[in-house]
Design goal:
11 helices, mainly alpha, Cytochrome Bc1 Complex, Chain C, extended
Length: 267
């Protein structure tokens, strides 16, 4: 009795079958499993369960900043007004715009040529999007000072500084100081008359601090009066030292928010 031969699938049918099986084959590959750890929603055979939800949080870089469970009141916009998130968002804008401005800014120490002031003029007149990016950087700095201060006021009003969150409150106070120092050091960088004399007044007030005021003023100014050494020192503080400390403190701040139980409850 003759056997019936089934027709071989054509090229089109084979391509359609391969495309249908591609997600499963890719998700089952060793490369895919090495990238996405067990419990990830992108792994093959994911089941929505409390354990897998915990795995998703613990195995993700971004989700790991948040606790597995969030209190219901913490989801209300009117409770936190997203002031902490807005502060971090403005810090990100400042970082991006600041890097762009660094490409065209030269902290020259030659007072005769006033190269810094010429670079600021070029940013406003000759460089593409220079004036826009500079204004974004300036307004983001002003808004960050405001949002950080309001965030601290909100935390104080809700009593979120109480145990076990007193350590994180101290970290937040230090972040407020870093924010003010970033704003103050950036004020000198345009190197115009307003910036020079404003920093002169500020450093002179600093010099009247008891015990170590004169020593701190001399270190920051780099001499007896505001000059080229002051510009270099404040530029390094503004673009390197203070942002580095701010990033470290923010990492500790976010980590402690999670470890202390997330957003604090209402009084």
């Amino acid at each position: 009795m003759a056997k019936t031969m089934e027709p071989k699938p054509g090229l089109r049918e084979r391509m359609e079958t391969a495309l249908k099986n591609m997600p499963g084959s890719v998700q089952g590959s060793q490369a895919w499993n090495s990238i996405f750890r067990p419990g990830s929603i992108f792994r093959k055979g994911y089941n929505d369960s409390p354990r897998n939800r915990s795995y998703v949080i613990m195995n993700s870089v971004l989700y790991h900043l948040h606790p597995v469970k969030v209190k219901r009141h913490g989801l209300k916009l009117t409770y936190t007004f997203c002031l902490g998130g807005l502060s971090f968002f403005l810090f990100t804008i400042l970082t991006i715009t600041g890097i762009y401005l660094m490409f065209f800014y030269r902290p020259s120490v030659d007072l005769q040529s006033a190269q810094v002031y010429k670079d600021m003029q070029d940013l406003s007149q000759a460089i593409t999007f220079g004036q826009l990016v500079r204004n974004m950087h300036r307004w983001a700095a002003h808004l960050m000072v405001l949002t950080v201060f309001l965030h601290m006021a909100r935390v104080f009003y809700h009593g979120a500084y109480k145990p076990p969150r007193e350590f994180n409150w101290v970290v937040g106070v230090n972040l407020l100081q870093i924010t003010l120092l970033l704003s103050f050091t950036g004020y000198l960088l345009p190197w115009d008359q307003l910036a020079i004399w404003a920093v002169t007044v500020g450093t002179n007030m600093m010099g009247y601090t008891p015990v170590f005021g004169r020593q701190v003023k001399f270190v920051l100014v780099g001499g007896l009066e505001v000059g080229p050494p002051t510009l270099i020192r404040w530029y390094v503080l503004h673009v390197l030292a203070l942002p580095f400390v701010a990033v470290l403190l923010m990492a500790v701040h976010f980590w402690r928010i999670r470890k202390d139980g997330g957003i604090s409850g209402p009084l």
